[in-house]
Amino acid sequence: MGKSEELFERAVKRIPGGVNSPVRAYGAIGMAPRFIKRADGCHIYDVDGNEYVDYIDSWGPMILGHNFPQIREAVVEACADGLSFGCATEIEVEMAEFICEHLPHVEMVRMVNSGTEAVMSAIRAARGYTGRDKIIKFAGCYHGHSDALLVSAGSGVMTSGVPDSAGVPKGCTQDTMTAVYNDLNSVKTLLEQAPGQVAAVIVEPVAANMGVVPPKKGFLEGLRSLCTEHGTLLIFDEVITGFRLAFGGAAEYFGVTPDMVTFGKIIGAGMPVGAYGGRKEIMEMVSPAGPVYQAGTLSGNPIAMAAGLTQLKYLYEHQEVYKELEEKGEKLYSGIEQILKEYKKPYHVNYVSSLGSLFFAENEVVDYTSAKASDTNAFADYFLAMLKSGIHLAPSQFEAMFLSAAHTDTVIEETLSEVRDYFMK
Ligand code: PMP
């Protein structure tokens, strides 16, 4: 028995399921998760001394690779002044100014501690601003684990087969309407069913929690027009796409302007940070400026801000990173597509820049229903083979692969060679 197995045996006795977030569990695979000791660049090392090429990247934030020197140094420097004050600091102002100066659709921003909090708070602000209660989300999109959003949700809840969680009272979800991703008509119908009652449409501009599902041409633009027509706010949940597809996230990448946006882990470079922002008149509804209450003792924590702002500044000053990520994505994902074609495998690859998924599905994956048609047993077999070959993937068919600037062409070629060996059999 390895050290990961030993730790897992201990963990399941004291932590539900042995993990502090379900997406870490290898439940679908039927083994103990790898317990990680350290990571550097595009590599991650477990407690048993195994080295893997990491395609999880802490679920997105390690866009420059693990343990990026400037970020680590900024954190160490900030620590010297104390870990938390629970009071206003200069670096929070710098962070807010930096974001608002460079993202035209964000006039004001509030820092929180996770993506879940960011979305929950953005929805509250949208409801406060519009005076409406209902919201529309898409089946298979995940927006964190707040009660109102655990409806046909993606990510870990999709993997575990409980997209509508137990413990959520009906009252909390009665105003959540669910539409079909990539289907504008489904949104139009819901908006017409509840005229003047929908506060917001929230969407992952590239769905990445049912595996990666890109928006069809015109989908985001169509959402924009429908929302404008109905006086409904359009919220882009950019927890995965923000500062990743482009510095301005999906809003810049696709040229569609949301009313509000939510960010997560990337904004803290891996520290527990989230943020929500948008037009000034909406954000001025938030306390203490306005009547929508939202708070957080550790929000804008100075260490987290030091890490996050260092990463954002680096990305802004080195925007060639985005072109590189696009090229790396093309190399890896079209490479996998090519291998599938060569060995006549009926599976599909979806990708947008550095985000991608290999679906063990025979039909194209465009929404929740087509994603769910994937053969999760075939995925589990592939996952295990990849792990044995030193490639660390998310242990679920319904999660994305994340490339970072630290994944070199050589590493990508080595990965493709392992994928080829697997499908050659
Ligand atoms: N929104 C999206 C799009 C996400 O992918 C996630 C988590 N990956 C969240 C919200 C929730 O973020 P957190 O896990 O930080 O609460």
From TrEMBL:
<comment type="subunit">
    <text>Homodimer.</text>
</comment>
<dbReference type="GO" id="GO:0005737">
    <property type="term" value="C:cytoplasm"/>
</dbReference>
<dbReference type="InterPro" id="IPR015424">
    <property type="entry name" value="PyrdxlP-dep_Trfase"/>
</dbReference>
<dbReference type="GO" id="GO:0006782">
    <property type="term" value="P:protoporphyrinogen IX biosynthetic process"/>
</dbReference>
<keyword id="KW-0663">Pyridoxal phosphate</keyword>
<keyword id="KW-0413">Isomerase</keyword>
<dbReference type="InterPro" id="IPR015421">
    <property type="entry name" value="PyrdxlP-dep_Trfase_major"/>
</dbReference>
<protein>
    <recommendedName>
        <fullName>Glutamate-1-semialdehyde 2,1-aminomutase</fullName>
        <ecNumber>5.4.3.8</ecNumber>
    </recommendedName>
</protein>
<dbReference type="InterPro" id="IPR015422">
    <property type="entry name" value="PyrdxlP-dep_Trfase_small"/>
</dbReference>
<dbReference type="InterPro" id="IPR005814">
    <property type="entry name" value="Aminotrans_3"/>
</dbReference>
<keyword id="KW-0627">Porphyrin biosynthesis</keyword>
<dbReference type="InterPro" id="IPR049704">
    <property type="entry name" value="Aminotrans_3_PPA_site"/>
</dbReference>
<keyword id="KW-0963">Cytoplasm</keyword>
<feature type="modified residue" description="N6-(pyridoxal phosphate)lysine">
    <location>
        <position position="265"/>
    </location>
</feature>
<dbReference type="GO" id="GO:0042286">
    <property type="term" value="F:glutamate-1-semialdehyde 2,1-aminomutase activity"/>
</dbReference>
<dbReference type="InterPro" id="IPR004639">
    <property type="entry name" value="4pyrrol_synth_GluAld_NH2Trfase"/>
</dbReference>
<comment type="similarity">
    <text>Belongs to the class-III pyridoxal-phosphate-dependent aminotransferase family. HemL subfamily.</text>
</comment>
<dbReference type="GO" id="GO:0030170">
    <property type="term" value="F:pyridoxal phosphate binding"/>
</dbReference>
<dbReference type="GO" id="GO:0008483">
    <property type="term" value="F:transaminase activity"/>
</dbReference>
<comment type="pathway">
    <text>Porphyrin-containing compound metabolism; protoporphyrin-IX biosynthesis; 5-aminolevulinate from L-glutamyl-tRNA(Glu): step 2/2.</text>
</comment>
<dbReference type="Pfam" id="PF00202">
    <property type="entry name" value="Aminotran_3"/>
</dbReference>
